[in-house]
Amino acid sequence: VSITDDVVREKKQEEVKQSPIYLLCQSLKNPSCGLKTLRLEWCCLTAACCEDLASVLSTIQTLTELRLCGNALGDHGVRLLCKGLKHPICRLQKLGLWGCSLTDACCGDLAAVLHTSQTLLELGLSANALGDAGVHMLCEGLKHPACRLQRLGLWGCSLTDACCGDLAAVLRTSQTLLELGLGANALGDAGVHMLCEGLKHPACQLKEFRLSKYGFSEETRRELAHLRKIKPSLNIGYIF
Predict the structure, then answer these.
(1) Does 5 map to a domain?
(2) First and final C-alpha spacing in the chain
(3) Cα distances (angstroms) measured from residue 196 to each of 39, 167, 235
(4) Letter string b/e over residues 74-91, b meaning 16 or more CB atoms within 10 A of that residue's CB
(5) Radius of gyration for the chain, computed over Cα atoms and rounded to the nearest angstrom
(6) 135 to each of 105, 167, 206, 231, how far by Cα in Å?
(7) Could you tell me whether strands 208-212 and 179-181 are parallel, antiparallel, or unpaired per DSSP bridges?
(8) CA angle 220, 135, 81 (to 5 degrees)
(9) Three-state secondary structure of 22-85
(10) What is the predicted pLDDT for the residue at 8?
(11) Domain range spanning residue 215?
(12) Which of 27, 33, 59, 140 has its CA 20 to 30 A from that of 210?
C-alpha cells in the first residue's frame, strides 16, 4: 500500500509540474521577469494553484497587482496566499478576490496580512459570504497602526448592522482608509446610523463611501444628506 501511495503522490506532483499555473509561476520567479500586474480572473482556478502563487509573492518584488476574481479559491486557497502576502519580500499593492467562494474562515489570515504588509493599499472582497463575523476579524487588522489599506470593497458580503459598530471604529481609527464599498448588504437604518457616527468623526479620512440605493428610511436618507453638508469632502455614492 505504501508503494502505491508513493506512486500516486509522485503522479500528482508530476501533474502539478505540468499545470499551466505552475509553469507560469516558474516563469514569474525568473530574476529577469519584471511583471507588475497579473490578472487571472475567471480562469477556473482552485486552491491547488495558491501555493504556487504564494511562492511568487514571496520571491519577486516587482508584482504590485494581482487579480484573482471569479475563481473558486476558497478559504484554504486564500490562507495559502496569505503566507506569501506576509513575506517581507512581497510588495503587492492591489489584491482582487471578488467572488472567490470565501467565508469568515479566511478573515483572520487576511487580518494578519493587513497589519503585516507595508504595501497593500487595495483589497477587493466583494461577492463573498464573509458575514458579520468575518468583517469583525478584518476590522481588527484594519485598526492596527501598521495597516496601510486605502480601498476596501465589501459589496454583497452578507453583512448586517451587527458589523457596523466594528466598521465605524475603523473609520474613527484608520488614518489611511479612503474608500469603502458596502453596497448590496442588509445594513438597515441602525447600521447606517452607526456608520454615519464614524464618518462624522474628526479623525475619519474617508473620501468615497458606497451604499445600496434602497432599503433605508427617510430619516436615514436625511442623516446621509446632512452628512454630505457637514463633510463636503466625502462622496456618498449609491449602487442598485
Answers:
(1) no
(2) 58
(3) 35, 10, 13
(4) bbebbbbbbbbbbbeebb
(5) 20
(6) 11, 8, 18, 26
(7) parallel
(8) 145
(9) HHHHHHHCCCCCCCCEEECCCCCCEHHHHHHHHHHHCCCCCCCEEECCCCECHHHHHHHHHHHH
(10) 46
(11) 36-239
(12) 140
**Is 21 inside any structural domain?**
no
Single pTM value for the model? 0.92
Contacts of 231 (CB under 8 A, 6+ apart): 199, 200
Longest CA–CA span in the chain (Å) reads: 73
Helix (H) or strand (E) holding 191: helix 188-199
Distance CA 32, CA 145 (A): 35
- Residue among 65, 118, 47, 58 nearest 83 (CA): 58
User: 90: which residues sit within 8 A by CB, 6+ positions away?
Assistant: 57, 58, 61, 84, 117, 119
Residues in the chain: 240
- Chunked into runs of 10 residues, the chain (240 residues) has average pLDDT values of 54 60 96 96 97 97 98 98 98 98 98 97 98 98 97 98 98 97 97 98 97 93 96 90
Q: What is the pLDDT of residue 73?
A: 98
What residue type is assigned to position 124 of the chain?
G
pLDDT score for 213: 87
State the CATH number of the domain containing residue 89.
3.80.10.10
* pLDDT for residue 10: 54
The helix (H) or strand (E) run that includes residue 14 is helix 2-17
In a domain, 62, yes or no: yes
Would 200 be classed as within a structural domain? yes
Cell numbers at residue 131, please?
458575514
The count of structural domains within the chain is 1
For helices 131-142 and 107-114, give the axis angle rounded to 10 degrees.
Answer: 20
Residue found under cell 503522479 = 11
